[in-house]
Task: structure prediction
Amino acid sequence: MKISQLARETGTPADTIRYYEREGLLPEPARGDNNYRVYGPEHLERLAFIRQARGLDMSLQEIRTLLRWRDQPGADCGAVDALVDEHIEHIATRIRELRALERQLRALRAQCQQASDTAHCGILVGLSQAEVAGGAAALQHVGGAHGRH
Result:
């Protein structure tokens, strides 16, 4: 199949498929007489695996590691368990950070109980005071909170 068909069947943009090839996650496909990439069922299955892992918010490095172990069917899966345990802890940490962020935003929102001009907006005043009082650490951005682009 051509890249357009692989993209359609997996819901993956062609640019992303090419990126995964460059990153070594997908094996480079054969080329047809017309020099088009020719993908087989192994590409479809491997791309589905990558998409599933990305859906679980795994990094490309984690996926690369999982794919290496997957390509060694006789290997012990204890390292796979350890990788997933580490990822679970990372997710738990992000959840705690997001809950703290939510509390900060709710407290900030509570500073503006009624509409007024922006010179007296409790949120804008609160943001200015937070920056002065605590420096850049007062309100911190939580990485990964906005989804993928």
User: Anything to note?
Assistant: The chain has a mean pLDDT of 87. The domain at 3-70 is CATH 1.10.1660.10 (Multidrug-efflux Transporter Regulator; Chain: A; Domain 2). The longest strand covers residues 30-31.
